[in-house]
Amino acid sequence: MIWFVGAGPGAPDLITVRGARLLSQADVVVYAGSLINPELLDLCGEGCALHDSSGMDLGQIVDVMVRADAEGLSCVRLHTGDPSLYGAVREQMEALRACGVSFEVVPGVSSFLGAAASLGTELTSPEVSQTVILTRAAGRTPVPKAESLAGLASFGCTMVVFLSAGRLRKVQDELLAGGYDKDTPAAIVYRATWPDELVCRCSVSTLAECGRRNRISKTALVVVGEALGDLRAQSRLYDAAFSHGFRTSRNATEGAGHAR
After folding, report:
1. Domains along the chain?
2. Measuring CA to CA, which residue among 23, 37, 29 is closest to residue 219?
3. What value does the mean pLDDT take over residues 166-193?
4. What is the average pLDDT score of the chain?
5. Coil vs helix vs strand at 210
6. What is the per-residue pLDDT across 96-129, written as a single tens digit (0 to 9) for each?
7. What's the rounded mean pLDDT across residues 205-219?
8. Residue 222 and residue 204 in contact, taking contact as beta carbons nearer than 8 Å
9. Which of 73, 78, 161, 220 is 20 to 30 A from 187 (CA-CA)?
10. Of 22, 63, 62, which is closest to residue 45 (Cα–Cα)?
11. Within 10 A of 133 (CB to CB), how many other CB atoms are there?
């Protein structure tokens, strides 16, 4: 059995309980050495065979996993964040299917959630933005024409841009061209939840300068949107006058007694 495990955003204790258990029981671990926190490998048991995939191609990675399965060994493929977001896992899964090898996926805490935690904010804000777009800028790997940053920016909602810290000028220009106001709140979060994390707040029009000034060119997320600004309206969920299936409104219960 092959287990695709999300390692979380960086801090070793942000891996899931299931992921940590599988690492401790694994005979073979193939890990994204350029991305995951090496402290996670301390969870592996003595004698576990470790393979750093940062210098391996797809065929080599799949070969390790297929051989492990053929030998009846438990194998963990350890990816950063959550494997389903920019994890390049689908081609690995398809190759395993072609070889008749079974696998399961253990989700992880994505880096965009780690970044939101580091910013101390909610990415969705009442009456401001109820939508979060996760995307990346076009580079060596293109994006579909309909998903350009400028096109997505026209929605004006919260946007999290992955894999684009080395193209901050392009990101800035496209976001402005797409419709974000130059003063729209933005942030660059470098290595969210890692010990050397750096959170840089700025505006859309100062993204490139902020990155240059702080020498950020990789391993960072760009977060943009009015949800990062001042709170404009509170959620109705905890409003005393708002009733739902688990709570009647205070207006309806004012003066009423309660007995067990």
Report:
1. 2-106 (3.40.1010.10), 111-228 (3.30.950.10)
2. 37
3. 96
4. 92
5. helix
6. 999 999 999 999 999 999 999 999 999 999 889 9
7. 96
8. no
9. 78
10. 22
11. 17
What's the full length of the chain, in residues? 260
Residue 247 DSSP one-character state: B
Backbone torsions φ then ψ of 46, nearest 5 degrees:
-65, 135
Query: Which residue, 33, 30, 32, is CA-closest to 73?
Result: 30
Q: Are 51 and 31 in contact (CB under 8 A)?
A: yes
Under 8 Å between Cβ of 159 and 153: yes
The angle subtended at Cα 117 by Cα 111 and Cα 120, nearest 5°, is: 145
Q: CA-to-CA distance for 198 and 192, rounded, in angstroms?
A: 7
Lookup result for tokens 């939840």: 193
Q: Nearest 5°: phi and psi at 190?
A: -90, 125
Q: Cα(139)–Cα(167) distance, rounded to whole angstroms? A: 8
pTM of the complete model: 0.87
Find tokens 């005393």 and name the residue: 240
Lowest mean per-residue pLDDT among 59-73, 130-144, 192-206, 220-234:
220-234
Mean of pLDDT values over 48-71:
97
For the packed helices 90-98 and 58-70, what is the interaxial angle rounded to 10 degrees? 50
Alpha-carbon gap, residue 14 to 135, rounded angstroms: 23
Q: Is the dihedral of CA 52, 56, 61, 64 positive or negative?
A: negative
Sign of CA dihedral 184, 190, 193, 195: negative
Token couple for 19: 């992921």
Token pair in block for residue 169: 């000028």
